[in-house]
């Protein structure tokens, strides 16, 4: 193994002693997406002894523009498992565990307790606040990174009595107030830069080298190459509030519980039923449009402001590109007491293919539906 | 005094610029913020924190700096 890590070991600041620290370190990465991919790639290459990867999502074609661990052969696979598979080839001398599930208030504490450092590469505020709070409770340093279009933020929280994410932004913005990458787009190389900075912070913490970004928020702009580092102060009351929630922490899973209870339905069943409203929650630019069916368009990003489009008399069946956002939509609608909602299992490309009408007939378009179950949704 | 204000992320999309200089004579950060709101009304609906001379500050902080930054949270990953 000496040869593999030779370029680390010959640095007097690291040496064999430093490399041993790296190989003893246990790091948990939340999210194997735009940020997670470069984080995982560099930490694996560096020889972090124990790596954990949490991600419930599957690889979609639109991920490949920036999520560099995946190729077309990974489409449809779980991201944590696909990442592990790829990383094993990069370095088979370390231990990698994939957790192909959603991080929840129920499982976070037990999971975090098994690691030394937590890295946040998630893509939504609910998970970011959950990761922060669980890091505070388990007293683990948290290497934070987040991105927006051409800009990124990096920091180290809960380190050496430093501030937490809530000391910077005490409460999550309202749902939908800040769009994410899938809604607004992101420069592919940006998570590469920010994720690599996060991997750098992880190594600095393990090695005790330099000054980790504790108490500081680094803001980077890829378009003008400006970066600015802002000082964040620890707010004892914010941290105390989180610590006080320790005993009831595992019960705060309202959102996740809803998600588990979401009813799903196959498009084959949908087209045999009457008195249904079919809703497309994809953003307006997404294709293919399913024009063969009578579809109500309600993009997820603005769902809550369009509730008047819902027909209370009908059964609501909801679809998106792959069946993930449609579940989210059902859970949001439940919050607004809109019931009788189902998430369609198939994604838009399959629904499009299977409901496409022949030019001369009204019903013949449905004749292929029996083969539906065998078609893999790979977008 | 002349204050240099930097805008990030969604905030810069509202102001249509990444920075500008404003002449302002108030005392508190909150007063400066009201002044900024009067220029960009829709900023009222945005979440952000304020830094003065590269340090995060509360609204009650006295205005002392030459540089203010309006910093929104990002969720993307």
Description:
- Chain A is an alpha/beta fold.
- Chain A is 33% helix and 17% strand.
- In chain A, strands 3-2-1-4-5-6-7-8 form an eight-stranded mixed β-sheet, sandwiched between helices. In chain A, strands 9-13-12-10-11 form a five-stranded parallel β-sheet.
- Chain A starts with 5 loop residues before the first helix and ends in a 24-residue tail after the last helix.
- Chain B has one domain: Beta-grasp domain (Ubiquitin-like (UB roll)).
- In chain B, 23% of the residues lie in helices and 30% in strands.
- Chain B contains two helices and five strands.
- Chain B has a five-stranded mixed β-sheet.
- The longest helix of chain B has 11 residues, at 29-39.
- Chain A binds chain B through residues 31, 33-36, 120-125, 128, 145-149, 151-153, 168-169, 173, 177-178, 180-181, 186, 191, 217, 219, 221, 224, 228-233, and chain B through 6, 8-10, 18, 45-47, 49, 51, 54-56, 69, 71-77.
- Chain A: It holds the Pfam family ThiF.
- Chain A: It is an enzyme of class 2 (transferase).
- Chain A: It catalyses: [molybdopterin-synthase sulfur-carrier protein]-C-terminal Gly-Gly + ATP + H(+) = [molybdopterin-synthase sulfur-carrier protein]-C-terminal Gly-Gly-AMP + diphosphate.
